[in-house]
Amino acid sequence: MTVEIIPADRFTLQELTDLYNQTRVDYLVPMPMSADRLGEYVHDFDVDLHQSCVARTADGEVLGLSMLGIRGKIAWITRLGVLPISRRTGAGSALMDSMLKNADTLGAKEIHLEVIKNNEPAYKLFLSKGFVETGNYLVMRHAPRPLTAPLHDEIIWLDFDGAMEKLKSYPVHLTWINAIASMQNSPNTEGLHIKLPNGASGWLVYRNTKFTLRSTLSHLIIHTEQGNPDEVGRQLLSQLHTQYPHHDTYAENIHEDDPHLSAFQALGYFTNFSRIEMRRK
Amino acid sequence: MAKILYIEDIQDNITFVEKVVKSRGHEFLFAKNAEAGLELAFASQPDLILLDLGLPDADGQTLSVWLRGNPTLATTPIIVLTAWTEEVARQTVNAYNLNGYLCKPFSLKQLVDIIDSVLGKQPT
User: Fold this and answer.
1) Do B56 and A141 touch (CB under 8 A)?
2) Is residue A108 predicted with pLDDT exceeding 70?
3) Model confidence, pTM
């Protein structure tokens, strides 16, 4: 089969959404999107639809798609998917080759992506294209529940600017969706800083999406400046969920060795699935 | 006869569940996204909601929070029908205070049994 690759910006967001949803209909992790949601995704994660691609046959029948984010010298491949009926036709490999070529043309020195753990076909494809594992991450969820954390004298709620200021000092690698640029792109980024009586301190930055059906807390990033990360993490999360008792929450891409993992679990977070970050230089 | 609302985006799943629900003599309603599902739930006040967790415009978990947050729907039974793993489905049902789950693919008998069980009838 001859696979043609064409820029994704020749399609409407609704057409791309429909195609994406069809590629994921039998996926390990069900993650359909609406056109609004995909538009937000493109904006927040700096996806370049002109450099993103749709695969189709010579007859014009669409087979799959892939998207490319670009930030300076780093590119990010995302939303790669092939229709179930069109798998094992070389469409996935052709899409990857186009992504790599476009990233190279744009001057990217490093390319990142994430693959869901146990998605063996995709994982093997990425390995074959020269990607190597760089980290394992958890996607966790927290249901709203009544919680009353004791009031603390030294809690400072951070607005967008305050949250971004804290995030700029974060010393650990963040995956693309939680990176400073992603948080900068969302007006819903905010945070809190806490100082405990024993001198321990830290901050939590997150997105607070309000007043829509998707009223959620998401993209949580915790940093302990001083003291025990478990204690600081528990206090920060307790304050957050006391402040927002009705918000559904998901924490994406928490590193499996994150020192605050025990705090998440203590607050009732549970793992939905795991992702592997991979990079190619 | 009960009124059953199914919130699910995949037509094949809707068609299958519709046949099962109607064959048991129940009224069947459906919505293909969270927003339409929420509106229909408010308007129709179903006796049971069957909920897919992977919806295009909002996650089923988040939708369940909105449903539970409305006094007229707070106690309406919600059964999750999901492609997530058994472990994730079980944890979700417990955490979000839902009433049961079936992991896809499920059989006709499994669906009938869980509907009857939640509606208070003896399984066949």
Assistant:
1) no
2) yes
3) 0.92
